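Standup notes
- DV: blocked on the single-chain target, sequence here:
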Amino acid sequence: MKILVRMMLCLMISFTLVEIPIMKSQAYAGMISTTEAVADMSRADADKTMSQFLDRGDVKAQLVKMGVSPEEAGRRLAGLSDKEAKKLSTDIQTATLGGDIGGILILVLVIVLIIYLVKRI
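- DV (later): unblocked, structure below
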């Protein structure tokens, strides 16, 4: 009987883990992505975003640490095509500091819940 309960619990949790990303994508079906929202951004806006990013002190320090001068980075950015400049500008704007921690927290919570329920059975 315990094996049947454990198997059903594992199946339910597996289904939930598969279903959560599907439900999340459906919840935002009416929203437009950032990529679509900034698709009409002009090259001037992209250049402005990239130059503001290069003007930051921490970015300059990291470039020097990697052996690239900020002037060289600016020249390389000027040589990008419009599509590449827009993509890089969008990536700079949408980058999150430290990554997405929400998904990691939910995963840890589910694992702890599974361990707790398995020990109780």
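- Follow-up: The CA atoms of residues 110 and 116 lie 10 Å apart.
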